[in-house]
Structure formats: structure tokens, C-alpha cells
């Protein structure tokens, strides 16, 4: 597995393989009496002795997730066998975290080992409104140690910040480490200049940590999605 700058630790647990065929890619998870979690509805098929479990969160969590149009369930797969997840014209990125936490943008989470804790992180009301996501904006929080699979429309670039700042169009942001200061602002101080520049509201990340960007799509994704992929 290539070093993407996420972690220096390799965990001997469930095995994830990203397979490309016929212009699409999909994820295969190999389990040996182990557990993985995945995005709701991501299963294609599975082989061997594998059981599926899915549980509803509490009432408060359910209401927040429904209002934010987020998945309220992350099913788990436990046993020995192979689990094949649905394909994508974009791509998938496998990385590991080691006793840390990341905030993933909506739609970025695809699967993870059972050792990874999944929860939701709520942004401030002001940030939610400026980002255009309404009063409640939730991101998927992954924490602990283990492997995670991200769904992405293109190659990933890791931006490492050391008491620095990066400003990006929100369409290209995939994830950020916990602890970075995050806010949304206009492209320019003047509203008129912002409109004339053609730029949307920009996301600002400050501090020490990492930001994952996917600034250009895979050709197959661009071919299918057209101008919407840009």
C-alpha cells in the first residue's frame, strides 16, 4: 500500500483490496473471523460465513442525521469470507489512522475495519449556513486505529499544515484531521468581487494537521458526469 502520509502503522487485520476492471473500481474485503463496517447500501455480494448487523442510533442522533440528510446506519459484516462492495466510476482510497480522528465530507466514507469508531460531528450553525448546507451540517467522524476506505472522484492529495492555512473550494475537500480550525468565507471581501470572480464560498483550514483534497477527477468519472465533475 502506498504511503499517503496518513499513518506509519500497518495493522494486520481485515484486508481491503481496491480492484479496477472495465473502467470502474470496487472494494473487496477479506475477513478471517473479523468485522468491517460499510456505508449503508454499499454491499454488492459476499461469500463465506459472514453475518450482517445494523442498528439504529438513539432518537436524538436519528433526528439530526435525517435533518442533515446523512445516513443513520453503518451496517457491519462479521465472520470469515469475502465481502464485495458496489463499484464506482470514480475511485477508492485506502489509508490507515493510528489513534487519531478525521472528519470526512458527506459521501466520502465507504468502509472501515471494525476497530474504527464511527460517529457524527456537527459544525457550528454559522459555518453550516455559510457552506450552504442549512442549519445542521454533519460530517462523518472516524477515530481510533485501523484501515478506512474513502470514496473519491479522483486522486487524493495530502496537504500537511504546520501552523499554516489552506483555502479551497468545498467541492474538492474530502477530509480533515480533528483539531484544525475550519470556517467558510466569501471568495473576496467584497460580495461584488466574489460574484464577478465566479468562485463559490471557500473553506478555510488553519492550524496544524492534514487536509485531503481531490482537485481533479478520473477520466472515467469525467466522461460519465460531464461538466458536473469539474
Q: How would you sum up this structure, described in words?
A:
It is built from 4 helices and 12 strands. With 230 residues, it is mostly beta strands. Strands 1, 2, 3, 4, 5, 6, 7, 8, 9, 10, 11 and 12 form a 12-stranded antiparallel beta sheet that branches. β1 and β2 form a beta hairpin. The chain is globular and about 60 Å long. Mean pLDDT is 81; it is low at 1-5 and 7-12.
Topology, element by element:
Blueprint (H helix, E strand, L loop, with lengths): L14 E7 L2 E15 L4 E11 L5 H9 L8 E10 L5 E14 L4 E5 L3 E6 L2 H7 L6 E15 L4 E13 L3 E5 L3 E5 L5 H7 L4 E12 L5 H7 L5
Antiparallel strand pairs: 1-2, 2-4, 2-6, 3-4, 5-8, 5-10, 6-8, 7-8, 9-12, 10-12, 11-12
Give a short account of the largest sheet.
12 strands, antiparallel
Mean pLDDT: 81
Low-confidence stretches: 1-5, 7-12
Q: SSE order in H/E notation?
A: EEEHEEEEHEEEEHEH
- Number of discrete domains: 1
Sheet-strand content, in percent, reads over 45%
Mind telling me the CATH class? Answer: Alpha Beta
**Name of the CATH architecture:** 4-Layer Sandwich
Outline = globular
Number of strands: 12
Amino acid at each position: 500500500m502506498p504511503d499517503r502520509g496518513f499513518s506509519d502503522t500497518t495493522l494486520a487485520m481485515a484486508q481491503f483490496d481496491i480492484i479496477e476492471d472495465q473502467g470502474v473500481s470496487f472494494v473487496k474485503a477479506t475477513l478471517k473471523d473479523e468485522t468491517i463496517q460499510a456505508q449503508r447500501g454499499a454491499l454488492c455480494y459476499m461469500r463465506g460465513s459472514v453475518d450482517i448487523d445494523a442498528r439504529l442510533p438513539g432518537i436524538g442522533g436519528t433526528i439530526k442525521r435525517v435533518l442533515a440528510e446523512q445516513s443513520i446506519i453503518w451496517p457491519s459484516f462479521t465472520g470469515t469470507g469475502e465481502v464485495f462492495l458496489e463499484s464506482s466510476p470514480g475511485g477508492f482510497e485506502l489509508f490507515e489512522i493510528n489513534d487519531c480522528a478525521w472528519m470526512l465530507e458527506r459521501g466520502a466514507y465507504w468502509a472501515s475495519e471494525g476497530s474504527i469508531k464511527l460517529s457524527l460531528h456537527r459544525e457550528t450553525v454559522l459555518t453550516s449556513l455559510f457552506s450552504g448546507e442549512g442549519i445542521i451540517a454533519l460530517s462523518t467522524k472516524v477515530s481510533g486505529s485501523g484501515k478506512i476506505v474513502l470514496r473519491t472522484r479522483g486522486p487524493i492529495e495530502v496537504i500537511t499544515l504546520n501552523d499554516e492555512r489552506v483555502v479551497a473550494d468545498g467541492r474538492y475537500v474530502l477530509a480533515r484531521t480533528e483539531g484544525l480550525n475550519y470556517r467558510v468565507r466569501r471568495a473576496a471581501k467584497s460580495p461584488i468581487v466574489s460574484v464577478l470572480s465566479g468562485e463559490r464560498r471557500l473553506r478555510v483550514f488553519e492550524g496544524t494537521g492534514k487536509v485531503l483534497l481531490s482537485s481533479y477527477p478520473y477520466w472515467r468519472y469525467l466522461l460519465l458526469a460531464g461538466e458536473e465533475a469539474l
